[in-house]
Here is the input.
Amino acid sequence: MRNYLPGTLASMMMLFLSACSGVRDVSDRHYEYENAHSLAWNISTAAGMTSFEDAKLNSPLSTLYSRKDYDLSYPVKSAQTLNESTLSLAPLLRFTPTGMAPEDWWFNRILAWIPTELAKTPQQASTVLANTIQEAVLTTLKETKRPTGEIKNEAGDNGWIDKYAMQITVPRYVVIHFADSAAGCEFPDKNVPFMVRIKLPSCAFFAEFHEPEKIVSTPAFITPNATGKSYLIRPDGLNSSFVADAFDKPSTLSDDERTRMAYDFLQKVSQHLPSWVIFYISPHERAGMPAMVLQSGKVYFFVTDRPSKP
Here is the structure.
């Protein structure tokens, strides 16, 4: 009598692996905008984040913070624009209590809807996003006259357990080092011992994200694309994205100054990105900076009208 068990198990395993490795098309579902919340809340929620809650302010204050032209430039250069010298961010600070588990909104994220006409596979979509971000960062560094150092734009390792057991897709990294005299960042001499170099001020754009798992309907807050479909880069779960603060251990800056320079830098990078690449910046409330979303240089705060009393 033949033993069919090994063959059956092998067939089941192949079906399991093929099911786990393919990208899912869920573009028949459409995100429904929730008018009771801010655009920032809707963008992060549509991406799959556990969203940061909106600050509820009375009108017309809520209307003022709903403008998209807030200038995060640091140091503040003009009193003619909407910035910290003309509109304090204090009313947006939430100091939201959290549980033991890390929340999605704790960290800076990349939220991206890559048009399917730009890539035929998740691997190509990941490359398109990485190259788009790299070009925007390099353009920003050139405009701000910051010398560019080592650049890494590459896929990471993704073993069998990660890919099939954990269902973690291939990670992608974009790392661009640069010098900044205001932050005391210089390119270290390679002859300096490693343990000394890691203690020196460091300036770098660092972003990590994973290959998309699904194709979604392009949401209304993204410029319409030819197919109406996009690869979604997740900001949550094991395949979450991450963007580091650009200025580490600055020798000449306080924590408040370093935080504002990081916000300023990301807004400048965002100005060179298409509408389908969005930065979520986590709250840095000890430094007086709230959570926000950046899209093509525009600033969206988590704020909505306070319900009127009956």
About this structure: The first helix runs from residue 5 to 21.
